[in-house]
């Protein structure tokens, strides 16, 4: 911070306070002369300082004299006032958040088809986590292989935390894994944590050899599809997010068939 204006004082208030520091004490006229604040504005400036507790006023003599509080006290009081102001703003933002979300949701278009994409492992994870967090009803996870770019020990628990977060908000989560991916996931996640996850509803886990590829079906109408690098199939090229109800229905039908034949996992 370079001046008291950074903490909410006006230019005139800042100059008047600095003038009082130089004077020690002074009348309004003396402060105006020292600070070069117009005499028609000096009383407003001093009144602002007084209301903030930055000056003391001697009223037992005429004309009134003003004395500044110590700089450390002045700065502490201004910082505390700014802290209260920011807390009030945050409370206002928090109280209005739900209403704003509802208004924005009402304004959403109902186009049946839309797609977006992310390239690279990091951006793909960001897109996936964003869509998981946006789920309202259900999430289907199908994973039959793991890209060489992913660190299962790091990304596995993080993905699990995201899924548990939406489970706690009432979203149904169904996870269908190949045996190899299940073994990798089990090795990456703490056993107690895995057991707790499986025990939570609405969370279900099954294993199958009859699924292919990695995808995430969100709310039955949106598919996040991992795209392999055509020149290196074991590496991820990107993530494709498709909002196409016709395609999502096809994916859902294929999932239901594989899910019905999958082996239920109820313990690790």
From TrEMBL:
Residue ranges of every copy of the Transcription regulator TrmB N-terminal domain listed in the record: 4-71
Start and end residues of each DUF7436 domain: 110-262
Entry-linked InterPro entries: DUF7436 (IPR055859), TrmB-like (IPR051797), Tscrpt_reg_TrmB_N (IPR002831), WH-like_DNA-bd_sf (IPR036388), WH_DNA-bd_sf (IPR036390)
Gene3D superfamilies in alphabetical order: Winged helix-like DNA-binding domain superfamily/Winged helix DNA-binding domain
Signal peptide: none
Name assigned to this protein: Sugar-specific transcriptional regulator TrmB
Native source species: Halorubrum trapanicum
């Amino acid at each position: 911070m370079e001046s008291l204006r950074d903490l909410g004082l006006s230019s005139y208030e800042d100059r008047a306070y600095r003038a009082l520091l130089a004077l020690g004490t002074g009348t309004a006229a003396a402060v105006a002369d020292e600070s070069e604040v117009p005499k028609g504005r000096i009383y407003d400036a001093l009144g602002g300082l007084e209301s903030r507790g930055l000056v003391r006023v001697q009223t037992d003599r005429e004309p009134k004299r003003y004395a500044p509080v110590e700089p450390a006290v002045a700065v502490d009081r201004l910082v505390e006032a700014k802290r209260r102001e920011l807390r009030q703003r945050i409370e206002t933002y928090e109280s209005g958040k739900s209403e704003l979300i509802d208004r924005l949701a009402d304004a959403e278009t109902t186009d049946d088809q839309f797609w977006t994409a992310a390239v690279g492992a990091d951006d793909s994870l960001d897109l996936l986590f964003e869509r998981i967090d946006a789920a309202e009803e259900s999430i289907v996870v199908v994973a039959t292989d793991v890209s060489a770019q992913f660190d299962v020990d790091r990304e596995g628990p993080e993905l699990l935390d995201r899924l548990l977060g939406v489970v706690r908000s009432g979203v149904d989560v169904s996870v269908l894994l190949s045996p190899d991916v299940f073994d990798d996931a089990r090795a990456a996640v703490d056993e107690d944590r895995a057991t707790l996850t499986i025990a939570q509803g609405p969370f279900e886990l099954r294993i199958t050899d009859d699924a292919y590829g990695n995808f995430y079906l969100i709310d039955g109408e949106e598919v996040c599809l991992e795209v392999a690098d055509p020149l290196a199939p074991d590496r991820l090229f990107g993530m494709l997010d498709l909002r196409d109800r016709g395609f999502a229905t096809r994916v859902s039908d294929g999932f239901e068939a594989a899910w019905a034949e999958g082996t239920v996992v109820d313990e690790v």
